[in-house]
Amino acid sequence: MTESRLRKGSRWAGMLLVAWLGACATAPETPSLPPPKPGEPPAPSPQAPTAPAPSLGFFSRIKVPDTVQPVLRLQGRGVQVFRCEPRGSSYAWVFRLPEADLMDATGKAVIRHGANFSFEHTDGSRLLGSVVDFDDSPEGNNLRWLLLSARSFGQGILTGVTHVQRVNTNGGMPPPRCDASQQNRLLRVDFSADFVFYKPR
After folding, report:
1. Which end of the chain has the least Cβ crowding within 10 Å, N or C?
2. For residue 113, which of 41, 198, 50, 194 has the smallest C-alpha distance?
3. What is the distance between the alpha carbons of residues 145 and 11, in angstroms, rounded to a whole number?
4. Residues forming beta bridges with residue 196, ordered by sequence position
């Protein structure tokens, strides 16, 4: 009786092993994306969410074309630099350049924003922007909201970015006038703003 049971147990064990091996052999493989071509940046993950677009008025002059979508949104903090220069019979604070760090959701500075509306990411990719249009800030004496067209350089997150918006500004405006005693003096005014970066759809 014992020998018969052992034979039956061995037969069942053998059948289970064969079934398990067959299942492993026919399991579907996980599909993988083809590797990028030489010199080509890696393809973004199709599941990656796009950045939220800012809320703008229906007739806003800084709306982007329908052919682009937001891919990155960062908060900038820094200063706007002005210089006291003659203007007609008086003097005024004239904008020279921004100096700001743009931070991600964790508070880490990832982009340096500087002269000529430049943006330099820590991965080496860069943008040079040109002002396309602007809207006055809806709240108080704050910096204007801007729409920039952009040219990208290098390979990285900023590669392919064609437009940048500066919105939700706070601060950054100089006093209305300076005088002859302040000529050529620089003034740094604190500001913050959100920067939204767009690429073609």
Report:
1. N
2. 194
3. 78
4. 73, 165
